[in-house]
Design a protein that fits this description.
The protein has a domain at about 110-150. About 65% of the residues lie in helices and about 5% in strands. The chain has five helices and two strands. It has helices at about 5-20, 40-65, 85-110, 115-140, 145-150; strands spanning about 70-75, 80-85. A two-stranded antiparallel ribbon has the order 1-2. α4 packs across α5.
Length: about 150
């Protein structure tokens, strides 16, 4: 390859690297798109991960620091966990109920009754959908499209 072709190829590569990367769509269902964009899906997924992370911090605080909760594998679904009160947890739950109430009020208090009911209903639907997504991810070993059809 000539020097001029190498220089031209390098310039094209630099120009391509400087161009903004446009992410491919992460959803295709019409209800998930806003004017053809999946920005809301991306924002929701980010928010759900943030919420899950924060809830884990709170669970860890209550479970480990205070010895209130026992975490064990779900025998019906090894992907999940079951949280139960320990004996110490049962004894201290009344004393700590004010703190738990305050945490829940901070966490959910900005929602009105209608929004909270909608969140609860949406969460139940998302739990079912996330089960299908986990099945899909577990089955994709080399054949993602056939696994997707099987998960539906």
């Amino acid at each position: 390859m000539s020097i001029s072709r190498l220089v031209a190829a390098r310039r094209r590569a630099q120009r391509d690297e400087a161009a903004p990367y446009i992410l491919p769509p992460t959803a295709s269902c019409g209800a998930l798109l806003d004017k053809g964009s999946d920005r809301r899906v991306r924002a929701l997924v980010n928010d759900l991960f943030t919420i899950a992370s924060r809830m884990e911090v709170i669970r860890t605080h209550l479970g480990r620091r205070m010895g209130l909760l026992r975490k064990r594998s779900n025998p019906q679904d090894r992907r999940g966990v079951l949280l139960t009160l320990t004996a110490a947890g049962r004894l201290e739950i009344d004393r700590l109920s004010a703190e738990i109430r305050a945490i829940n009020d901070m966490f959910f208090g900005s929602l009105d009754r209608k929004s909270f009911a909608a969140l609860c209903a949406a969460a139940q639907v998302l739990v079912k959908g996330s089960g299908k997504a986990v099945e899909y991810v577990s089955a994709v070993a080399g054949e993602p499209l056939s696994a997707l059809n099987a998960a539906e």
